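Per your request, structure below.
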């Protein structure tokens, strides 16, 4: 269960995660559920394929 607290979310373990981490988790889960099919994952998330591709690229740049 996600609970909104001071712009952070609490998930199961009690560890607070940021909204960006929550978005990253949703993208990861959608890609996993669709076996890496970005088109299906984008549709599942309610966004375009280009938007999903951009978000994945942004996440990769942030990880460097």
């Amino acid at each position: 269960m996600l609970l909104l607290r001071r712009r952070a979310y609490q998930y199961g373990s009690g560890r607070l995660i940021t909204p960006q981490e929550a978005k990253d988790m949703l993208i990861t889960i959608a890609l996993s559920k669709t076996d890496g099919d970005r088109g299906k994952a984008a549709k599942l998330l309610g966004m375009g394929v280009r938007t999903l591709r951009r978000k994945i690229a942004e996440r990769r740049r942030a990880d460097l």
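The chain has a mean pLDDT of 83.

Regards,
D.
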